[in-house]
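Possible regression after last week's pipeline update?

I re-ran a chain I had predicted before the update to compare outputs. Posting the input and the new output here so someone can diff against the archived version. Not blocking, just want to make sure nothing changed silently.
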Amino acid sequence: MLPFASRRSPVMCTGGCTATSQPLATGAGLDILKKGGNAADAAVAMAAVLNLTEPSSTGLGGDCNCLFYDAKTKKVYGINGSGRSPQALTLDLLKKEGFVETNPLPLFHANLVTVPGAAAGWCDTVSLFGSKKLSLGEILQPAIELAERGFPVAEITAFHWEGGVSVLQRPGNEHGEDLLIQGRSPKCGQIFKNPFLAQTFRELAQFGKKGFYEGRIARAVVNIIQKNGGVMNLDDLKEHTSTEVTPIFTDYKGVRIWELPPNGQGITALMALNMLENFNIKEMGHNSADYIHLLTEALKLSFSDSFWFCADPAKIKAPVEELLSKCYSKQRSEIINMQRTNSQYIHGSPCEAGSDTVYFTAVDAEGSACSLINSNYFKFGTGLVPEGCGFALHNRGFNFSLSSGHPNCLAPGKRPYHTIIPALATSAANGQLLCSFGVMGGFMQPQGHVQVLLNMLEFGMNPQEALDAPRFCLEYKKSDGTWRLSLEEGISQPTTQDLIARGHNVQWPVSGHDRALFGRGQIITKGTWWESQHALIAHDNQEVLWAGSDPRADGCAIGY
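New output (post-update):
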C-alpha cells in the first residue's frame, strides 16, 4: 500500500515556473527558462525528458496537444497534435477479420496505432510559439544527456512500469526489452539508460519532423506495426501534419476556461461547467453528497454529448457553438434529479435548442504559458517498440467506434475521439492569465479539470490544496450503458452511503497506488485570484506565480 500522508506547500516565485509529474523533467524545463527559452521551449524540453523517465505514460510513440497563452497579445492558441488512422484501415477490413462494435480490436492490436503525432507537435510548438532563442537541439539536449547518462527511476513510476512489463514481453515485440533491464522493469532507484531514445532525439533535432516521419525511424515504426498485423505504411507517416486550431472556451463566474475543440474531449468539461453555473455550488459544501451527486450528473450529461458529437472535425462537423450555448446547458441541467442518479443519459439535440498520460506546464518571466499534454493512451500503449528507437507505440485508435452510423466511427485518415486535454484559464474581463492547468488520466481528465477548478473558484483553495483534495471518478461501462462512481480515500463514509442511497454504483475507498485512477495534475497560477471574486478585478497587480503538483505522482513544481 502506498501511503499518501505527506503535505506540500504551494511553490511561489516571480521569474518563471515549471510543473510536471517527474522532478528531473521539471528541472529541465526550468533550466530552459533560465537559458532564455520561453514557456513553449520549456514544455517541449519537459516532454522529451518525460518520454525518458515515464515511458509507460508518454513519448514520441504517442500524441500531444498544446494550448499557448501569449502574454503580449493576451491571446490563446492551440495545436492539435493527434495522429490519424492508416489510409488502408477500413471498417470492411476489420469486419473481414471479425472485428465489429460488439467485438472490438484487442487493446494492444497493431491496428490501434494511429500515426504518432507527438514529434510533429513538439516541432510545431517550438516553431510557432517558441522564443527563437534556442534551437530544437538545445531544447532536447537535457533529455539526450539524461538518456545516455541514465537516471534513477522514481517510486510511483517504477510501480506503473512493472505493470506494463507483460505487454513489452509479448511475442512479436522483439525490441520491447529496450525498455527493460535484463528483461525486467527497473526498480525504484535503479539507474535506467535509453541510448536508442537519445539517438532518436538527435535525429529529430537535426532533421526536424522529417527525422521522425521519413527515413530510419519511420521505417522502424512501419516495420514493427506490419510484423504484428497492422496496415500502416510509410505514406501514412510522411503525410502527417499537426493542425493549428482555434481554442474553445466558456465563462464561469468571471473566469474564461479554454480547451481544444473536438476531436479532443475538452468540450466535456466546458459543458459540465455551463450546467453547474445554474446551481449554488459553494452552499453545498466541498465533497458533500449533494456536491458529488450534482457534479457526477452534470458530467454524465456532458459525456453523453461528447461521446456522440466529439469526432474528427475534418470528417464530421461537431455543433460546438450549440453545445456550448448557455441556453442548451440550462435545458440539460434541468434534467438533473438531485435525489436520484440517472444511469441512462443519452446525447441531446443541441441544434434544436439554438489513457496513461503526462500533463505538464510552464509559465515564463514574460507571463506567457504553455499547457501541454502527451500520451501513450494505455500504459505503454500497444507496447510495440520500433527497432533502435527507444519508445513504445500508442493505441489511441481504441477510442474509435466501429459502428458505421456513429460520428466517431473508424475511417481512413481520421482522428479518433481524443482524451488528452490541456487547459488554461484567463480573466473574462481583461484577458489576463489566471492559470495553466491540467489533470491527466483518460476519461478522468475533464472530470479532473472541473474538480480542481471548482476547488479554487468555489472553495478558495490554492493550487496545491486544489490538487491534494480527494477526487471522484466516473467510469462508463459500454457493455451495459451504466456508470460506476469511484471515491478516493478522504471522502467520508456518510457521504458515500448517501450517494449509494441515491442509486450510485459506488466503489469506496480507493487508496494507495489505485489512486492513479483519479489522474495526476499540475497547476501554475498567476496571482491569488482564487481567494475572492474581488481578486479577479485587482489581478493586474499580482505578479507572483503559485504552483502545485499532484501528490498522486512523483513530480513537483519549481520556480525561480
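Follow-up from reviewer: compared with the archived run. The chain has a mean pLDDT of 93. Marking as no regression found.
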